[in-house]
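Students often ask why we bother encoding 3D structure as a string. The short answer is that it lets us treat folding as translation between two languages. Here is a chain of 640 residues written in the first language.
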Amino acid sequence: MAYRPIGDPKHATANAQSVPMDNIELNTRYDAGTYSYAPPSGSPPPPQEDRDMKDGGERDSKAAFRSSEVPASTLALTAARLNGKEVSDYGSRLTETLLLSPTIFPLIFAALMGRFFRHLGVYLAERGTTLGRLEQLVGCTSVFSALERQFCLRSWSFVGLLSIIVWLLSPVGGQSALRLLGQEQHDVTSTGTVRYMDPMTIENSVIDGASDANSGRSTYTSIFLAALLSSSKYEATPMDLWGNVKLPIYRYLENSTSDEWKEITNNTNANVTYASLVGVPVAGPPSDGYSTFNIKARQFDITCSSNKLMDQNQTDFGNMTATWKLRPVNKSKHCGTVVDCAIPDCDGYPCGILSKSMANSEDEDKFSVANCSISFDYFESGVRCNRSSCAVYKMKKLDLLSDGYTQDLDDFTRNNFLSNEMSIMPTLDNYNVGSASARGSTNMEKWMMDPTNFIGARYDNVDLYELSPEVFAERLTILYNTFFQSTYGTLALGGHLPSNLTQTGLMVGTSYGSNITFNGTEANIVQETKPIYKTNWKWFTALLVCSLVLLAAAYAGLILKYITLAPDIIGYASSLTLLNPYVPTPTGGTTLHGLERAAILHDLPVRIGDVCANEPVGAIAFAKADNGRVARLDRRRYYI
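And here it is in the second language, the structure alphabet:
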């Protein structure tokens, strides 16, 4: 194949400007005689096609199987097998593998699907097809290239649309593997028994008389002071330092709603005020999951109408044996003329009491005096636990004289428990200390003045009269309940309750009358199952379809490669040298695949340039770039 020069070569330069442009096409001829190929002498070489197809087939086979060692379909089926099974190390490794899928899957997809379209194009070219279809197949290497050929060829064919859909499976496959496997937990609802200390345990309080109070002094003193000294951390928490459940002050909830149950909107907030620093012992909350149950307990509540500074002669303080005293407003007739008598004359609640505390004044005769009243009430509280962390979330008031608490016992409470507590608690930490009134306020007084800063020796008195009656009443309520709860059921307060307590309901003491009864209450329990794998079946289907399409394309390409006799020359740069008069062709070159031809002509210098540089109109061709036979292209020159 060759181009015949236009006009007389000898006068090409002189006549270059006179050649009419309309005659360019007519004057350019294909000369069949100028180029010819003669086969080499001797016997023909052995058939090349079998060897090439065998070698190429083996390479394709190895590449296909190497790319399919861990196909996405296997990952999909493995993930499906894990559905409903507990989370394991094997599943974790599979999950990590799936995280790589958005990167690996498109690479494998591009490699196998691109080769499939190429082999299909060569197969159809061998049997005869249109150039447009061949271009759509061979040039279809991505979604963009598939769309590009649809637009540029101006032909929206079924093959083109199908190739676009196929290439869209690549990102779908990668993303579906990423979303294939998840985890979930189910809630299992059940009921169980939780036990709490019987409210009637107050009958065994050691302050029922003077003798028992002295015997139990070491016990309730240590419990009370431990709770008091740790209050900076546990005062606002729903459980005490030993894990017992604390009850809020009901008075603050009473008017929150007209319903019988008073809800606590935020039982973890520091704004919730608890009535005691010591809670109710509870046994049996499940160590895993959530539980709700109800408990019952009795507690005191104190309100004050006034808190002011007064002279000693107005207070009837009595002997200066202490810095703080609690006394009934109305003394019992049994007190006679005893000034420090604490037996109240109270037939029902509320009972009036007076708090008298030495003030830190230059005048030693000044006292802080609060006029208060005390009540005793019975409550049922709803408790919600997250594992072993519990908090009261609702309360309602019950009839005081119920569940075994009789009028006689209530009379005993008012005449004995009230009077003994008013006598013992104010001197708890300076009992029998000489000249106690000269050694400064007690820890209780300092705590009421400032619960956040009361620890340490100061040897002075606090000015409780500076507190508002409401604040003073709140803090006195907390102290009063804390001390009273330190005098009964003490064996159960420190936690570490017996493991069989939920079955027996009885905590056996070491001495007569020290057994503690625990009442049973039904608990609603919600527990989460262990995390299990959950297969997303929609993404599973998408991944399986993409994988099967890819697998089918890989094997189809392999089969097409075996049954196609024509060498793969489409789309390779080396194929431009095939039967090209401007590039020398190796003997037997028509049987070579594109890459084999490129390997042979690896160092051949080539150029796309003007092969008719000496003619008035140039011709662009792919040619060997040596000996000046091909010139560079020029924008100012015409080319056919």
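Translate back mentally: The first helix runs from residue 24 to 27. Keep this in mind for the problem set.
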